[in-house]
Design brief:
Blueprint lengths: L1 H7 L8 E3 L18 H9 L6 E8 L2 E7 L6 E7 L4 E7 L8 E5 L7 E4 L12 E5 L6 H15 L5 E6 L15 E8 L2 E8 L12
Parallel strand pairs: 1-3, 4-10, 6-8
Antiparallel strand pairs: 2-3, 5-9, 6-7, 10-11
Length: 211
């Protein structure tokens, strides 16, 4: 919030954003340069272990609010998305190339690159998979170490993603299903036998001629 507050205090910088965030109780010191993208800096700050999700949401036709969720946003809606019911198409994708169990992270010139390895690397059946991350916005050693822990934890999980298309008019707005929410996906078709709980990461909305 300090980044947004500082921006809005400058001439022409007020966007009408109020603070609705909740502190996590984890204090971290970070150094940022004036003029850098505030949104990118907040995202970088959030991508650490015990981090947070964030968004700027409208609270009225003319007002916005900055909010945070620790560690992830969303709730379980108890919603069942079943193929042949509200789901008219479903596609599964797996990007195994994002996997890594050994990571080297480097930041700005003021920091020392750090390396992290999975605890079970010596006995892992898949062997060693390396990844290199470079981010010059990491200007302190603490921020670099925090990012390294986050990326190693994230990279060790291969996450299949599903893209589903819902029937026209089924989605009833953000109070029905929204970013971060958990939904149950049921797909029994051909070789696909799936009944699992998934997190919503993206929603595409199409407005037809009838609104």
């Amino acid at each position: 919030w300090g980044l947004i507050d500082d921006t809005q205090s400058r001439i022409g910088g007020d966007l009408g954003i109020s603070n609705g965030s909740t502190a996590t109780g984890v204090t971290r010191d970070r150094l940022f340069l004036v003029g850098d993208s505030v949104g990118d800096l907040i995202t970088a700050l959030s991508q650490v272990e015990a981090g947070f999700d964030w968004d700027i949401v409208p609270i009225s036709p003319s007002a916005l609010e900055f909010r945070t969720w620790h560690e992830e946003r969303g709730v379980s809606r108890g919603e069942v998305l079943e193929y042949g019911g509200p789901v008219i198409s479903a596609q599964r994708q797996v990007t195994a190339t994002d996997y890594a169990n050994a990571i080297r992270v480097s930041g700005a010139d003021t920091t020392i690159p750090t390396e992290r390895e999975a605890d079970d690397l010596a006995t892992a059946l898949q062997g060693r998979w390396d990844a290199i991350v470079a981010d010059t916005s990491l200007t302190t050693q603490d921020s670099l170490e925090g990012r390294a822990h986050f990326r190693l934890k994230w990279s060790q999980v291969v996450r299949p993603t599903w893209s589903v298309q819902l029937t026209r008019g089924y989605w009833r707005g953000p109070d029905h299903i929204w970013i971060g929410d958990l939904v149950r996906l049921v797909v029994y078709s051909g070789c696909r036998q799936v009944d699992t709980i998934l997190k919503v990461y993206e929603i595409g909305i199409g407005i037809d001629a009838d609104g």
